[in-house]
Here is the input.
Amino acid sequence: MGLNISKGNIYGFIDRTWNPIKGKCFHDCSYCYMKAINKNQREADVNKNELKTDLTKDRYVFVGSSTDLFAENISSDWIKRCLNKCYDTNNNLFEEVNKYFFQSKNPKRFLEFIDHPVFENSVICTTIETNKWLPEHMRNSPKIEDRVSAMEKIANLGFETHVTIEPIMDFDLDELLPLIKRCKPV
Ligand code: SF4
Here is the structure.
């Protein structure tokens, strides 16, 4: 598949998507778009051919838009190989480097790799659909407080953060707003 031109409902500022890991997402959210369009997904696996993709230059690349790259079932080695690929691409460019966008419902896993130099030119994002814990929809996803607490640490380390409210679920504004503020989204 390689580097794809971003289309559909994805963020307007993203112009490319790259999915080095393919397959069933561990989080298994009831509302997952990828699950709906691909009912026979296999277990998540790194696609070695994807690691040969030319990530070009001067792009804003969403890495892992189709499955959560930082879910608990993804090995640290796989994640490192993907981060290295992004970093090495920029390192071989003199100018017009790529910016990378990493999104996970398991942001505490970002902290495992936070010293990786790729994050110096990246945005780190989590999803906060609501302030409420809705296990029938969120299934294996980390609890909202766990996501917020990890994002708060990441933001306090000086990294650029982003929060997506997607899909918008039933929420209490007075509780949701402070959670989002703690993530310090730029
Ligand atoms: S975290 Fe995202 S990709 Fe994974 S199941 Fe949930 S909606 Fe789908």
